[in-house]
Amino acid sequence: MSEELIETIQSMQDRKVRFVRLAGNSLIIYCDCEPGDLNQGCSIWLEPTWHFRNTERVITGSREAQTEDEVEHSNIIEQLRTLYFKTIKKLSIEPITNDVVIEIDEGSILKTFVSDPNDEESWQIRNFNKGLRIIGNPRAIQIIKDLP
After folding, report:
1. CB 123 within 8 Å of CB 136
2. Would you state the torsion angle of the CA atoms of residues 62, 65, 66, 72, taken in this order, to the nearest 10 degrees?
3. Tens-place pLDDT, residues 88-116
4. What are the C-alpha distances in Å from 144 to residues 99, 101, 120, 121, 137?
5. What is the CA angle 139-45-118, rounded to 5?
6. What is the pLDDT of residues 37-96, one digit of tens each?
């Protein structure tokens, strides 16, 4: 792993979840910012496939979020809102698969998992302060510096 990647991963520790958005069955977690804040904080975009669990069970996942039923979709969003104002304890990337694992207060975990080794994107971390994007898939991790 490059120094910049390691530094970005470590910088996610102790960030607070401020907002969670379900876009179809993709999940976006905003840390130390809210949607539209492009000058501060970070976002973590989990492309399908992902799941959210606690110390006892899997709470929900991207497959369940595929629903077109508005009530079910709303219930999933409510479950994810339990993450609001919780702290990221650790973010790690698994070897071989490049799955991202986000450990949050109280034993909550968000995790991607490979369903197709040819996926172009499994997750994305955006650091708005640094104008940096990191994109992970089962084959590679790419660091992109965006223009400010």
Report:
1. yes
2. 160
3. 999 999 999 999 999 999 999 999 999 99
4. 19, 21, 15, 14, 14
5. 25
6. 888 999 999 998 999 999 999 999 999 999 888 899 899 999 999 999 999 999 999 999
Residue 105 has which token pair? 């207060």
* Residue 12 φ/ψ, nearest 5 degrees: -75, -25
Q: Which two tokens stand for residue 87?
A: 């702290």
Helix (H) or strand (E) holding 145: strand 141-145
Please give the model's pTM, rounded to 2 decimal places. 0.92
- Give the closest residue to 138 by CA, choosing from 110, 108, 111, 118: 118
102's tokens:
């986000």
Q: CA 42, CA 133: separation in Å to the nearest integer?
A: 10
Backbone angles phi and psi of 10, in degrees to 5: -65, -30
